[in-house]
Specification:
With about 230 residues, the protein is of the alpha/beta class. It has five helices and twelve strands. It folds into two domains: about 80 residues, no CATH class; about 140 residues, no CATH class. The chain is elongated and about 70 Å long.
Amino acid sequence: MNFGKFAFGALILAIGVLLLAVRLGFAHPDTPMFLLRYWPLLLIAFGLAFLAGVIKNPFLGCFAILLILGGTVLGIFWMNQQSKRGPSRGASSVDLGKANVTSLAVRVRSFAGAFDFRAAPPRTSGVSIGLQGVAGDSAVGYRFEVTGKKGALEWPQTQGGFGIPPPAAKLEVRVPGTLPVALHWNGWFASMRADLERIEAARCTLHEVFSSSRIEFDDAGRPEEIRVWGFA
């Protein structure tokens, strides 16, 4: 038996059921993005399916199909249960005064989420980080490093499952307007808004893949360089 074709049919069926469940309101809207984080399981399922066809082992073939269909059902059930608890929220701050830095680089990666960047309230010497994650996602921390007198803030500290940043996360970063700031953003299916008024922005580098960005600034806060590349 050609279990590879059965596995492909099961995948098409799972995608159809998932999209229909989201459309009808039986599944949380963030379920497809949540399941996308575990895409390597599809490689395992198809590998088992083709291996089952070669060695003529129906058990492996059935297990591969069950892995696809069962994983989809489990993902829908998990997200529905987690959504009842509401989205996770987190907040943190970094005191730049104690770090004794003279410049700051902010590096953010977003996947199917949103990033908001602007100045902190006056007389603020620290960076504040606010995160609102999707249901089912735990808050992923940031990384702050100081080299010489140059500070670097990176989010997320570690990427999500299988190398994908946490999907559908909404990140807010507020920086003091007294330091030169370099902003670097990588967005996949995401959106970004940067309000550079009252920020001494040195440069902005944006890498967008099917994403949108908006940068606002006045004549006094015009960055030295704005570089945008990618495709939509």
